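Workshop exercise sheet. Pairs work together: one partner reads the sequence aloud, the other fills in the structure field after running the prediction. Swap roles for the next sheet.
Pair: D.N. / O.F.
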Amino acid sequence: MQLTETFDWRDRTVRWASRGSGPPVVFCHGTPWSSRLWEPFADALSAEFTVYLWDMPGYGASSKLPEHPVSLDVQGELLADLLEHWNLDRPHLVTHDYGGAVSLRAHLLHGSAYASLALVDVVALAPWGSEFFRQVRDTPEAFTTLAPDIHESLVRTYISGASHRGLREADLAALVAPWLGEVGRRAFYRQMAEADQAYTDAVQPRYGELDLPVLVVWGREDTWIPVDRAHRLAATIPGAELELVDDAGHLIQLDQPARLATRLHRWLSARSFGRAA
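Structure field:
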C-alpha cells in the first residue's frame, strides 16, 4: 500500500492510504518504525475491513522538517485530528510501540472514540526509554554529526536488537532506509531527543477509565519493553484481554507474523461481526 494521500496539519505533511471495505481499522506505528511494519497485516484485513495506514510526522514518508516537534503530545493531537479528517465513527485501533501512547492520549485527552483498541508491545507504562535514548537526549550533537557509514551501522545494530528471531536482510534494509541521508539522520536522533516519559505519566493514572474492549499482545522475549509491562498494563485496564506470544521480541510483526495476524483477525472479527474470538 503506497501512502499516496496527504493530510496537511500545522505545516506538516502526513502521508496515508486506505484500502478495502467494511468496519474501519486504523494502524498506528511506533519508533523508529513506520507504517511499513503494519502493511502486510492491513493488506490481509482489507478483504473484510477498511484499513488505514499513516506515517507520523518525523517518520517514514511523512515530512521530517527539523523545526517541527515530533513528541508524543504532538502525535496524539495529530491522531485525533486525522481521525476527524477521515470522518471515522469509532474505528478499531491497532497500535505498536509509541503508537500505543499516541492512541491512548488521543482517546483520553482529546476525546477520540474507538470501537476497540489493540495494544501490541506498546509504550504506555513508566519507566520507559533505553540507555541509548538517554544518551541521545543528553548529547544529541554527538550523534547528528556522525559520519554516514557509522550512523548507518549504528541504526542497523539498534534496529536488529528489536527482533528475537533475527531479521532478514531485506526487512532490515527497509527498516533502516528512512533514517539514511541528512534528513533521515537528523530525524532519527530528533525523535529520541524528544522522548519524554511525562507524556505517558499524564495518562497512565487514567487507564482505569478506559471503557472499551482492549487487547494487550506482547512478545515474551521483548527486550525493549519487557513482558512484565504486559501483565501490568492488562491488570490496569478494566476487562483487558492479554495474549503473550512465544518466540517473539519487540518486532513481533516480523518474529511471529502468522500468530499476530491470526490473533488480530479474531479480535477484530469478534468485535465487528460477532464471530467467536
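Discussion prompt: The CA atoms of residues 44 and 211 lie 28 Å apart. What would you look at next?
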